[in-house]
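Class prep. Protein, please:
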Amino acid sequence: MRILIAGATSALGHATASALLESGHHVIAVGSNADRLGMVDASERFECDLTDPDAVRQLGEEVGELDGLLHLVGGWRGGGGLAGQSDEDWAWLEARVVRTLRNTTRTFADAIGRSEAGVIAIISTTGVERPTAGNANYVALKAAAEAWLAAVGHQLRATPARTVVKRVKALVSDADRAAQPDRDFAGHTDVTALAAELTAEFSQRSSR
């Protein structure tokens, strides 16, 4: 299957690209930095500013048909209670969490709907179930991303395509453990485990 990873240069992006390739899929890695993209295992690589709708539409013309979109663009800023939820942090998070999802789904949803087993997946947070003041910007935008994806699912309801939300508390990689050997990462999800879950989504078939 032809699967595009938005935000492929993250630790999760690296792990997922490798897992998908090992499963025989055609992996299209997309990110904003060509040098970092070059280190991702992929069938094709495209440098693209996913916050720019025109750039994403151009990407869509270059990529063509797709079976899957994995939206792994993210980041975190927060802390300081409600007073610490700055407008700058909100804008930074909105661009990554919501705007890139909005741009990529508007561009690629129709193609994925034409697939016999299309999948659009995002990574969300367990924090949307228990919002805190210090996390308000982040969880509000993650909730917005989930709502947007639900709307995408509504548009695709007559097709075989599925939308998937994976909620995690936080992610951890081997590099994180090496950098902070004394830190307790209890409750974190290993990126290789989540990559395996995402890859498994492409072995399923819709019941519709």
About this structure: Residues 81 and 173 are 28 Å apart (CA to CA). The helical segments are 11-22, 34-37, 53-63, 87-113, 136-155, 174-179, 191-200.
